[in-house]
Design the sequence.
């Protein structure tokens, strides 16, 4: 399970977007996952596949903190324990559970672990711990392997070409100069900065393992951060969760303005990144690279070392509680 993206914490949504009484179905690294709030209001996540006949639990309803399968009404709590099997009061419910996954709500974010036994907690960016920030989010779906989307987020030299009228506009007059890009290893991933002809560029970038980019574009005396989580849905599709954190213009009425800007920038990249061949980033030696590709090459090394080939081992399969043939 979760091939090539196993045993890591990933942001999947804002915690406030998981409403009580309503299932939220998301596809993550080849698995369908259903999120819901249990009886105590705590977030829960199950593989979105009923152990009875494999249908999507997310098509059912959430009632009293339990999710009820839409097909034959089996009910599961937030730990995946089977709470009810209609028509079968003698069923061995302890053997008929759904598969639960570790989930956390931290700093206003909803996190999923793509495995079963996390050895650490999620590590949110410090930005989320700062008081008084307005946070808004939206998702866009790209038809591309998540590694191509992630690299795009860490790439400085494309800005004046792809984003010639937005975030790359002011760098256009400098095309023809020499860009230096620095990647510094950090415990959480890496920090990227750039200079053109020796003059530092505004807007540092951070890469947070496994799949988050944070762009620091603080105006004087204020805070403005763009964050993107590149969430694999499957080998050909990625969902980009675009977050904006700001210390000014904090009214929720202004969220659409910030969302629009984020969406416009993402749309500028989309068709170009989706055209990448092969879909998944290849070994570094199979594409031509130059000095300013250092951050994307650093990401490739991390991907190949820590994610490529990873799998999550399933706990034992549910047992039968019926005559076998
Ligand atoms: S398929 Fe879920 S209860 Fe039968
Ligand atoms: Fe871009």
Sequence:
């Amino acid at each position: 399970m979760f091939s090539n993206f196993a045993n890591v914490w990933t942001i999947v949504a804002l915690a406030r977007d998981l409403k009580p009484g309503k299932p939220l179905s998301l596809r993550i690294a080849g698995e369908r996952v259903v999120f819901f709030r249990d009886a105590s209001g705590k977030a829960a996540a199950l593989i979105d596949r009923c152990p009875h006949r494999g249908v999507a639990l997310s098509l059912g309803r959430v009632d009293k903190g339990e999710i009820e399968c839409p097909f034959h009404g089996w009910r599961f709590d937030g730990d995946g324990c089977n709470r009810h099997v209609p028509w079968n009061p003698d069923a061995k419910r302890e053997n008929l559970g759904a598969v639960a996954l570790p989930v956390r709500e931290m700093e206003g974010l909803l996190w999923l672990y793509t495995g079963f036994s996390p050895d650490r907690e999620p590590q949110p960016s410090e930005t989320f711990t700062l008081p008084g920030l307005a946070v808004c989010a939206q998702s866009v779906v790209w038809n591309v392997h998540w590694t191509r989307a992630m690299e795009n987020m860490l790439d400085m030299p494309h800005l004046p070409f792809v984003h010639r009228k937005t975030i790359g506009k002011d760098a256009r007059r400098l095309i023809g100069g020499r860009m230096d890009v620095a990647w510094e290893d950090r415990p959480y991933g890496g920090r990227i900065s750039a200079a053109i002809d020796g003059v530092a560029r505004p807007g540092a970038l951070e890469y947070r393992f496994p799949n988050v980019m944070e762009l620091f574009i603080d105006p004087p005396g204020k805070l403005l951060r763009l964050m993107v989580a590149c969430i694999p849905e499957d080998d050909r599709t990625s969902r980009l969760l675009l977050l904006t954190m700001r210390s000014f213009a904090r009214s929720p009425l202004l969220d659409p303005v910030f969302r629009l800007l984020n969406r416009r920038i993402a749309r500028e990249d989309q068709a170009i990144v989706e055209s990448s061949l092969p879909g998944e980033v290849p070994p570094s030696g199979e594409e031509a690279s130059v000095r300013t590709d250092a951050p994307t090459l650093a990401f490739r090394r991390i991907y190949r070392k820590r994610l490529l080939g990873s799998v999550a081992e399933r706990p034992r399969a549910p047992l039968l509680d019926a005559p076998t043939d």
Q: What stands out?
A: The chain has four helices and 19 strands. The mean pLDDT is 94.
